[in-house]
Amino acid sequence: MTGLKPYLAAEGIEIPDVITEKLERFAALLHEWNGVHNLTGAKSIEAIYANIVDSLYPLTFIAMPKTLLDVGTGAGFPGLVLAMALPESEVVLAEPLKKRVAFLKYACIDVGIPNVKVEAKRVEQVVHAPFDLISSRAVTNTALLLKLTQKVSNADTRYLFYKGSRVFDEIGDVQHQLDYDIVQKHQRNYLYIKGRT
Description:
Layout: H1 5-10, H2 17-37, H3 45-56, E1 67-71, H4 79-85, E2 90-94, H5 98-112, E3 116-119, E4 133-137, H6 142-148, E5 158-163, H7 167-174, E6 178-185, E7 188-196
Parallel strand pairs: 1-2, 1-4, 2-3, 4-5
Antiparallel strand pairs: 5-7, 6-7
């Protein structure tokens, strides 16, 4: 397969060509930087494309946010990828590691992603009005993520956590407080929290 389009089509993800092109540029850039800086475990373009599709799949079922905070963005998954697909949304990426911050800032300039602000800090140090959506992939457990983001959330904030099989154990601790769905796709469990009860 050549290009990102067939990967997106296979999962029913529809985005404009101009965004697909930006995502392909980002993938090439990450592949180049990763050879030097070891930013992600995704070593091939195909593996990066798989991570892009993983990041974008929730757009098939979530409400579109005006503001988005991504906790621990790393090499850009899912926050930077979502930012490209949601050009009207204001996106803040919280990432404490300097080499990843350098890459994220460079990618925003090189690819042309003006709706992003990279915060070189831990999420608990971010100062902002409550976000519409808070996302995170492979950072920490659900209960701790909810606690760490208390200052930047309110009763209307939704959460999108990219989880593996442990999500069912994690949600057991807090499920009585939450209105949520778990959407399963391949090895991924997307925990979408629509509110707190």
